[in-house]
Design a protein that fits this description.
- By secondary structure, the chain is mainly beta.
- Helix content is 6%, strand content 36%.
- The chain is built from one helix and six strands.
- The strands form two sheets. Strands 1-3-2 form a three-stranded antiparallel β-sheet, with no helix packed on it.
- A hairpin with a 2-residue loop joins strand 5 (71-78) and strand 6 (81-88).
- The longest helix is centred in the first third of the chain and has 6 residues, at 2-7.
Length: 98
């Protein structure tokens, strides 16, 4: 919604809704970042996505490949150096993702 767009640059989501086309719902103000295996390992359920506000320069961030359908990794870059953000889903019954 408009409020989230104004207040947040990055939103991490656990257990997102994924439709029959293998996509989540996000409006045009957000880049939806899926785990790197989202489209190549369709038998695995995507359990985390990261939304990046379109007002952030696409040259200031990039997705880092990670071999899990439960992890989205992004790297922010700028005059402050670099910062990694990991969106990790762990169902609580094991630590296999970690």
């Amino acid at each position: 919604n408009d409020r989230a767009m104004a207040d947040w640059d990055i939103i991490t989501i656990q257990e997102p809704y994924i439709n029959f086309l293998c996509n989540t719902h996000a409006n045009s103000h957000w880049h939806a970042i899926y785990p790197t295996q989202h489209y190549t390992h369709s038998q695995q359920h995507t359990r985390s996505i990261t939304l990046i506000n379109t007002k952030l320069d696409t040259n200031s961030w990039k997705q880092i490949p990670f071999p899990s359908s439960n992890v989205v990794a992004i790297q922010l870059s700028g005059p402050y150096s670099r910062c990694m953000i990991f969106n990790i889903y762990n169902d609580g019954t094991h630590q296999n993702t970690l």
